[in-house]
Amino acid sequence: MKNQKKPKRKIFVIIFGILIFLFLVLAVVYGVWKSYYNKSNYIKDEDVSIYYEDQTTQEGSTEESTENSTLSEEDAAKLESELAELDHVDTANSNEVYNILLIGSDRRDTSWYGNSDSMILISVNESKKKIYMTSFMRDLYVVIPNIGARKLNSAYARGAGPLLVQTLEENFKIDINNYASVDFTSMSQLIDLVGGVDLELYQEEADYLNNSIGTNFTAGMVHMNGEQALAFSRIRYVGYYDYERTSRQRRVLEQVILKARQLDLGQLNNLISNALPLISHNIPEGELAGKLLKIPEWIQYEIVQDRVPYDGLYSYLGQDIVPNYAETIQRLHNTIYGQ
What we know:
Layout lengths: L1 H38 L1 E2 L30 H12 L12 E9 L10 E10 L4 E7 L4 E4 L3 E4 L2 H19 L5 E5 L1 H10 L3 E5 L1 H11 L6 E5 L1 H8 L7 H21 L3 H11 L4 E2 L3 H14 L3 E7 L5 E4 L2 E4 L1 H13 L2
Parallel strand pairs: 1-10, 2-7, 4-11
Antiparallel strand pairs: 2-3, 3-4, 5-6, 7-10, 8-9, 12-13
Keywords: Membrane, Transmembrane, Transmembrane helix
Protein name: LCP family protein
Organism: Candidatus Fimimorpha faecalis
């Protein structure tokens, strides 16, 4: 009997030792993950204040204030009526699609949220293995909840990520899971983390950058650091105004993704660790962990670029853009979800 007990005891000790080892490994992994997550700037939606008055910087700069121009009462009522007629349209969502809104704000100090200079909806469709990058132009007229008809970029100045997400969801009938935002400084630093980006310039773009930030670029493919790529993405008065600017913003983002594709797992891990402190977001800890595990697969997906308003699906009121909402919503849903 004693000889039979010894093997059982030995097996028990081995199993117990393995369990202890696994527990320690998990504890280390969890500790590393907690240190990563604690670096990020997680903000609960309910902790974000909404301002119903126009916002300005501490200096009161006209350039850096809420884009507060609005439609006439007649045009605003027409827009609100058009959107009300679409209340029956279901909000698009799918378990196979993850939507995150990437926001670049023009904030240069912490006294306000800033206007959203760049708004790109990243839609990861796992069934199609595609990433859809859809820019929403800053001068689109929308109805901001509880505020009224305003330019889209002013939603961020009044209520940061949560209000901007809510505005896009209600106007375009699309479920947005999360948002992540950066300002000018952090965007430049993020680009530097991947070693800069390679972009092809027209001569007019090269001339603009040479005059504005003192570069010595010529037409063709050039390598840019973060500051230079940020300036490139903000060019507005070369080419077709904001239409081309949103294209430049997507090109920069695409190049960042392409650079990330070239990293091995260790390098990608280091990139994520250094990038997290630069980003404000509303992704809870458990969700973010799951999404980060999928990044090595996701960044291999085909990238498809587009913008709202779509060509031919908008009208002008003066210099302001009003989408054809019914057709825009249908096309947006069809593109991202294949509906």
